[in-house]
Amino acid sequence: MTRLLLLRSGRRSLRRTSAVVFAVALAASVAPSPATASPASAAAKAPNLGGNVTVFDPSMPVGEIQATLDATYAKQVNNEMGTERYAYLFKPGTYGTADQPLQIKVGYYTEITGLGANPGDVVINGKVEAYNRCLSDDPANPNCIALVNFWRTVSNLTVNVNGKGQDGCRAGANFWAVSQAVSLRRVEFTGGPLTLMDYCTAGPQYASGGFIANSKLPATTNGSQQQWLTRNSQVESWSNAVWNQVFAGVEGAPDDSAFPNPPYTTLDTTPVSREKPYLYVDGQGRYQVKVPAAKRNTKGVDWASTGARTIPLSDFYIAKPGDSVTKINLALALGKHLLLTPGVYDVARSIEVWRPNTVVLGLGHATLTAVNGAIPVDVADVPGVVVAGVTIDAGLKESPVLLRVGKKHGFGLSNPANPTTLSDVYFRVGGPHIGKTNIALEVNSDDVLIDHTWVWRGDHGVEGFTEGVNGDTDRWRTNTGRYGAVINGDDVTATGLFVEHFQKYNTVWNGERGTTVLYQNELPYDPPTQADWMNGKVKGYAGYKVGASVRKHTLHGGGVYVFNQNNPSIETENGFEVPKTPGVKLNHIMTVNLSAGVINHVVNGVGEAADMTKVGTPVYVTQYPAQ
User: Could you tell me the residue ranges of all domains in the chain?
Assistant: First the structure.
């Protein structure tokens, strides 16, 4: 007890110290060592990852694995607002055969992940798929769509596509019809094509995805996907495009010289990248977490993870729902990393991540729900922190922020070679319950990498509101979220920034030299009147705003969509609002009308109106300012 008291006291002193003393204390730990390893004599026993994690072994009968996964899919296929969370981990080996393929369907809040050191170490002979979800029992109008296929993860495996036993429509391809908050990383598809739309369930329907990174793709059909980011991958071919398809560092990416016909945006390299940490089992059966290093101007896959750290799982505090934040924070203070097992965690005080190079890794879409207005995750202004695979929900009492990286006017101890990184971190305000926040994501530190996030103020849910105008008005007054992402730090990069439905600016970028590679936004559906959607004397708030004092900023591939279903007469003046200066450059941006409301201009008064005469037809600006 004496030691713990001293540590707690020391921590309080550390947080109160001056920037100079703090910098000296951190100097030895700013850059992580290339690798650490467990002692050779460590016992190779399976960790306790809780009741919602299942580890498969290739010796298990295929039928048994199939039955387990089918049972979970049956529970999760329509469980959009539920609290159940699952992770299925596959030890190295081969699963399924040519005659008995393993055909996995992935529902809500489900993670399918290989435990190999490389994607080829786990082979699924079969499929890993997501189909359109049918929202109606009416056979004449089943309303089968992929627009709400959120919150699922696939990573670190090879899929040898085998549709044996499926109908003729599905048998020939792997279907991955998904929308936001879905990631596919470190995956290779062989033996058949990949389609990002489901053309078999009631025909092709719009989907609103999506994200692929560090993967090898076969011939891929984009189809009805409204937007998509593919990063640091290889693709055999890519066909079809809807509104906004972006490729960064992708070998085989389509040419974008004819933009917007088709609407491709292709960057030869990714300016800043860091692959998501992943759990694997080494040759001695020990569980480890690989933490890739940050890199610049990269292209193609990086499965070797050159320069990565290897952290024994024994160095993690393995949290389970019901664990107190006090206990979690003590473990973090003592130098542990944090693994959040699947489930929903009520967070009444901040999880405080203040040591450099700390890893917070969630499995199975582990969800942190704010209680009593707490900030669920508070990351200090230090380098190298990685937060990955976590969903953060607003609670019934308003939180000032849901995730904060650095405090305003902080110590400024960032490191461009070792950026704090957010990978597959998702935010939700409303949906399963009433939610309230002022800001969802606030980044005050410099040199931060945001690698795929969905920041969502719910446009639908089960909060108890009635359907129709009154219910939408109730949602506007009750599920309150003013700002989605506020970026105050300098040299922040976002690859895959999806922000939707907030009541003022969805994204505000105040930091210098920011870069966004793919931006997707829907303005809020539910302002009751134009008076509720006014920015002073200006009609509405742009979906993406760069601060007036910013001198350098770059955006590649951005879209702002409007659907004022509560009041179709509402107008928004501009989709994008930026300073008029040569150093602020927007490449390949667009607005589109989804059938209600209007955006008068794309950016700063430039571009035609996305009005009711152009429903579903984007208005593009190839470059702003024009060259």
Answer: 53-268, 523-627
